[in-house]
Amino acid sequence: MNIHEYQAKELLAKFGVAIPKGIAAMSVEEAVEAAKQLPGPLYVVKSQIHAGGRGKGKFKELGPDAKGGVRLAKTLEEVESHAREMLGNTLVTIQTGEAGKQVNRLYITDGADIKKEYYLALLVDRATSRIAVVASTEGGMDIETVAHDTPEKIHTITVDPATGLMPHHGRSVAAALGLSGDLAKQAAKVLSGLYDAFLATDAEQIEINPLAVCEGANGDELLVLDAKLGFDGNAMFRHKDIAELRDLTEEDPAEVEASEYDLAYIKLDGNIGCMVNGSQASRWRRWTSSS
Fold it and tell me: What's the CATH number of domain 17-110, 3.30.1490.20, 3.30.70.120, 1.10.10.10, 3.30.470.20?
C-alpha cells in the first residue's frame, strides 16, 4: 500500500524527521489559504499522485510549453494560477505511462534554499533478510539511471535485526554522503527516525529523494524535501490509522475489488495467459502437447 507525499511527511515528522512546513489542499481556494499560512516568500506547489517524476511530467490538457507537476511560486497569485492548472488535469510522468494520473490533491510547501541534494532509502533486502540503507550523493535524479551509469555512487549498508540500528550505521551513511561535522550528526538523526518509522509502520520502502542540505536561520540543515512510503499490505490490520490514508482513486478499480476479497491481483497489459503450478501444471503441459 502506498500513500501520498504529504501523508508520508506527516508520518515521518512524528518520528523526529525534519521536513519543511507544508499543507495539503484539495481545491484552488485551499491552496491559496495554505500558502498564506507559510512563511514565504517562496512556495512550492506539488501535485500529489502515486508516481515519481512529477516535476518533469506534462499535463495532457495543457500545452507542450506548460510547466510540470512541481512548480515554484513567488506570490499568492502564482500559487493560485499553478493550482488552477494542476487540479483536475492529467499528469503524465515516466512512471504513470501514457494514461497519466488525474491530480486531485496538492501539497503547498515552504520554499527551501537548496545547497546540495542526496538520495537516501530504506528497503527490505530479501537476500539477507535485513533492512538495507541505500545512500547516494546523486539526489534528485532517477536512481535507476545512477545505478546503471555510475554504480560506484550508490552505497548500501545492511542492518542486522539482532542489534538494530547502531551509531556506526549513522557514521557510515554520513561518510557515504560526504557529510561531516553537524551535518553528519543530522544525517544520523534522520537515519534513526527513518529506521524507527520503518519498523513501527511495517514499511516495505522509505525513499527520500531528495534529502537536501538547505540554508537555515541557524546554519545549514538537512531536510527531507520529498518522501515515498510503501507498506506491507498484509500488516495493515495492525495499522488502522495508516490504512485509512489509502487513496482508492490512485488504484485500479479491479485491484481494489480484488483486495476486498483478499485476492492478490495485479492488472497487466497484453494478452491473458494461464499460470499454474504443481500437478495442475503437469496436466496442462500434457494437454497442450497432445492437442
Answer: 3.30.1490.20
